[in-house]
Amino acid sequence: MTDKFTFTLLAKDGMARRGEVSMPRGTIRTPAFMPVGTAGTVKAMYPGQVRELGADIILGNTYHLMLRPGAERVAGLGGLHVFANWPHPILTDSGGFQVMSLAQLRKMDEKGVTFQSHVDGRRYELTPERSIEIQGLLDSDIQMQLDECVRLPASETEIERAMQLSLRWAERSKAAFGDQPGKAIFGIVQGGDVPRLRVESAAALAAMDFKGYSVGGLAVGEPQAVMLEMLAITTPVLPELKPRYLMGVGTPDDIIESVARGIDMFDCVMPTRAGRHGLAFTRFGKVNLKNARHADDHRPLDEASDCPASRDYSRAYLHHLFKANETLGAMLLTWNNLAYYQSLMAGIRAAIDESRFDDFRLATKDGWARGDIPAL
């Protein structure tokens, strides 16, 4: 345990990195996957389950929590760790992405963005300073600068405008954050799918000396190959001895390929959202439990898994739960999916430690490509 925020790089294998982020509320083993607790809960999971699966940190969403129940209310109830019964590290995003994608009647200028809530129609203003204030009220351990995320495809002119605005907001966010011992603020690299803008954004943020760096504005409509190209040119510009976080990504394949390009931290709603809709992630690839072929299949999703949801329930039963629209189906598949993601991260970390990451990556992808074995 430490009273400071530190990042230690423990091993490298090519561009893949193994490290540890240490802070007062705990240590984050990297590469790390952060389950998304949008409104103060990882959907369909108990906090203790999430921890037992190996999660060192979860994510909370500034936009949703500011609207309901309200940041000031959460602060009055002891902060998000107490409120959500999660005493371990929490990262909060800035709220900017949700303002752009969910809010109604947005108006943006140099100061910030005003918007109408999708919940009750009330009008709010979110500036870099207010975003940091809200994240402080939530008492999160890692906070994000406010930025503007542009959906791709977009014109180079529009991408550059948003990137430059995000850099100015980065300076204001960092100033608002000030000096908070044991906590960190991350800058967010923007620049869309334009290489020179990605490099310019990363270099400018590095000069601002953030405690960590996020890569934003990817997985927003571009092909995976474009995302990976942007990562390959961005990560070398970022300081080696600070953590790198790819926001909102992604599939197991996205994660393993991004680790190969120097990324340390990930978050995504995919494993929880997929679980609620009948899709399981396994070492055999994806399994759609709504498919009729599972109706008489007595096998579990993965008999070798340590996760009870993966090991102790038949596919036939899981199929039945979704056909009958039973809540337990979503709970079990979410549990399975988060277990698989954390198992994948543990495997990645071990492979980097042992200088066999490329072999692990190929073997993992081969397992997905072979696919699930049909029932006899």
Automatic annotation (TrEMBL):
Alphabetical UniProt keywords: Glycosyltransferase, Queuosine biosynthesis, Transferase, tRNA processing
4Fe-4S: is it a keyword of this entry?
no
Gene3D superfamilies attached to this UniProt entry: Queuine tRNA-ribosyltransferase-like (3.20.20.105)
Q: Which residues bind substrate?
A: 93-97, 147, 190, 217
| Active site feature | 93 (proton acceptor), 267 (nucleophile)
Q: Which domain of life is it from?
A: Bacteria
InterPro entries according to UniProt: ArchSynthase1/Queuine_TRR, TGT, TGT-like_sf, tRNA_ribo_trans-like
Q: Where is this region: RNA binding?
A: 248-254, 272-276
- What EC number(s) would the UniProt record show? 2.4.2.29
**Catalysed reactions, as listed in the record:** 7-aminomethyl-7-carbaguanine + guanosine(34) in tRNA = 7-aminomethyl-7-carbaguanosine(34) in tRNA + guanine
Q: Does the keyword Glycosyltransferase belong to this entry? A: yes
Give, as in the UniProt entry, the pathway in which the protein acts: tRNA modification; tRNA-queuosine biosynthesis
Q: Pfam families attached here?
A: TGT
Tell me the first and last residues of the signal peptide: none
GO terms of molecular function: glycosyltransferase activity
Q: Which residues form the tRNA-guanine(15) transglycosylase-like domain?
A: 14-361
Instruction: Check the record and name the NCBIfam families matching this protein.
Output: Q_tRNA_tgt, tgt_general
Family membership noted in the UniProt record: Belongs to the queuine tRNA-ribosyltransferase family.
Q: Please describe the quaternary structure of this protein.
A: Homodimer. Within each dimer, one monomer is responsible for RNA recognition and catalysis, while the other monomer binds to the replacement base PreQ1.
Biological role: Catalyzes the base-exchange of a guanine (G) residue with the queuine precursor 7-aminomethyl-7-deazaguanine (PreQ1) at position 34 (anticodon wobble position) in tRNAs with GU(N) anticodons (tRNA-Asp, -Asn, -His and -Tyr). Catalysis occurs through a double-displacement mechanism. The nucleophile active site attacks the C1' of nucleotide 34 to detach the guanine base from the RNA, forming a covalent enzyme-RNA intermediate. The proton acceptor active site deprotonates the incoming PreQ1, allowing a nucleophilic attack on the C1' of the ribose to form the product.
Q: What is this protein called?
A: Queuine tRNA-ribosyltransferase
